[in-house]
Amino acid sequence: FGSHSYLSAGEMILPHIFFYFSLLYAICALTMSGNKFLPAVPTIYPIHYMMGFLLTLKTCSLFFESIRYHYLRVTGHTMFFSAIYYTFSFLKGITLFTVIVMIGSGWSFVKPFLSQREKKMILGVLVLQVLNNIAIVVLTQETEGETSFDTWTAILHLVDIICCCAVLIPIVWQVNQLEKNIEQNQHKAGGGPNDARMAAKLKLFRSFYILVIAYIYMTRIVVYLFAATLDYKHTWVRIFVVELTTILFYTTVGYMFRPMNENPYLHLRRK
To answer: Residues in domain GOST seven transmembrane (predicted)?
Structure first.
């Protein structure tokens, strides 16, 4: 890095961390888009395009974050690249929560439409994400220790927690609906293959629910408790753990709901 840097000792390695993770996300995006060129063409639903778009936004967000930190290290200011980074970060945040809500509601995989309450939930999450990103931008202009900094930090954490709780609700709705359907079929004769399909769906969405909770708990609670134990030279470890957890979450969800040949357990009814 040279003898002079505007970054602290714990931030010196961040440009490399963000850049290498952006490469990993680019590989994930290319892998997902490459599925359509397989000999046996998989069934691709609209949600898969949104998942691919999310991976692209995440790649761009991390790439411009690495450039931002590079110029911050060299010049001490990065107005232009900060604007680009916050734009991609804003779009990525909105898309991430939207994708989680839509997957959790069963859109594309289980049903071809969203209910009114699910549409309202998505709208609410989008509004919260706008507030969340405004808080992030304001924090970058404030000095730590000032009253306004503490206020916006509290708002940021509150909005983030509300968003995380909100995305769990559609998953709970979907799990409850599948459980009711299975119970209703058990009272009918000859449930057969339909019961097996719903049981497979129920297992998948329960796993997704647990995965989302684990991701939220790890990135919103555990990491910050862990960061409190780090010295000033190793503050980069918190960022590394967050990004590692995030890419594991993305790849696991992507594998669970990946494009594949017509799945007898997860398909839309077509007339």
So the answer is: 17-264
In terms of residues, how long is the chain? Answer: 271
pLDDT, tens digit (0-9, with 9 covering 90-100), for 94-148: 999 889 988 888 877 667 777 888 888 888 888 888 888 787 777 776 655 566 7
CA gap 57, 51 in Å, rounded: 10
Q: What predicted TM-score, i.e. pTM, was given to this entire model?
A: 0.85
Read off the tokens for 38. Answer: 């397989």
- Is residue 6, in this structure, part of any structural domain at all? no
- Domain limits for position 75: 14-256
In DSSP terms, 43 is beta-bridged to 260
Residue with tokens 């939220």: 216
- 8 A C-beta contact, residue 166 and residue 216: no
Instruction: Say what the pLDDT of residue 150 is.
Output: 73
Which CATH number covers residue 60? Answer: 1.20.1070
